[in-house]
Design goal:
The chain contains six helices and 18 strands. It has helices at about 5-15, 40-55, 130-145, 155-160, 195-205, 220; strands at about 65, 90, 100, 110-115, 125, 190, 195, 230-235, 240-245, 250-255, 260-265, 275-280, 285-290, 305-310, 315-320, 320-325, 330-335, 340-345. A six-stranded mixed beta sheet has the order 5-8-18-9-10-11, with no helix packed on it. It has a six-stranded antiparallel beta sheet with strand order 12-13-14-15-16-17, with no helix packed on it. It has a two-stranded antiparallel ribbon with strand order 1-4. Strand 9 and strand 10 (about 250-255) form a beta hairpin.
Length: about 350
Amino acid sequence: MSYVGLQDFYDSAAAGTLPAVSYIIGPAELSEHQPYQPKDGAWLQQQVVNAVVNGKGYNKTALIVSYDETGGWGDHVVPFHSPNGTQGEWVEDPYGNEGYVYTGPGFRVPFYIVSPWTRGGNVYTEHADHNSQILFLEKWLAAKGHNIVSKEMSPWRRANMADLTKAFDFANPDYSIPNMPVPAVPSHNAAQDSYDGYSICEATYNVTRPPVPYGQQNESTALATETGFKQVRGQLTEGRFLVFEMNGYALAPSSGHSLTATKATAAHDPKEQRWVIHQLSQNSNKFTLTNAANGQAASDNGTFVINDMGNGQGYSVQESGRYLSIGHSGSVSMVQSPTGFRVWSVTYDN
């Protein structure tokens, strides 16, 4: 079953005869790892995506694309990891540099899902690592009546890493095919039947490993991040600014540790509408909320229970047994039944 070739995958996807699970590892020259070129890896990814979304089985297929290294992505909070001494998670650094240290989870790596149930450019907020993909397969197979359990996974990872199911909105699939940019076809040496873009690139320049331009950076440019917003899916976790919206309004602070609502904007950018959540304990859905503009707590009581209602229904925000709600006129009230907020993760410089 191994090394059957990319063309076999393309043909099976077109015919709708793919096996239940496929693992795709392309040739090294299309891996994006130096000295190979990111644009060539992008081309390979598009070939795989095109095969899946244009194949006969797209309406029952999820394509997971993940990397094994960070690629320079930045984290603004310490990565979530296990408590000191957790079995199977802490080791003595064999090189003697770090001492007794946790093995992960670590800094973020790029990872995305292509499927009719994950459309919309959402960001998944639950704690996840590569074990999460295995947990997803376990849960999916269990739903099909197959009891498959990976015994190699540590108990802490199994208890604390997400199974990815809340990244999906199974109630509202979108089977349309989006328009995507078309990357250039990689250079190919027909005589040697090999991709040679990297070797041509290296032969073109005298210096193939230019020094990092430290002298051209300052703190503001080195720490700059792309601004913008993404709607979130999954149980909420710490580490981002969040905007809670309902009926065209967003939660904002009022006097005396109370809440009001102000008009939402298309860019979700008013600073007074941004909140920082603080988890009270690991794996808890209980949080305190602090406003990003003035540092004000959202409540004298201090504790909110926030739950992802799943399948596009939004997030319920509960305090003292009742649920926050924003009416069509922008009035904030407490109601008996859960109401769903749309939550946005935002990044802005101000």
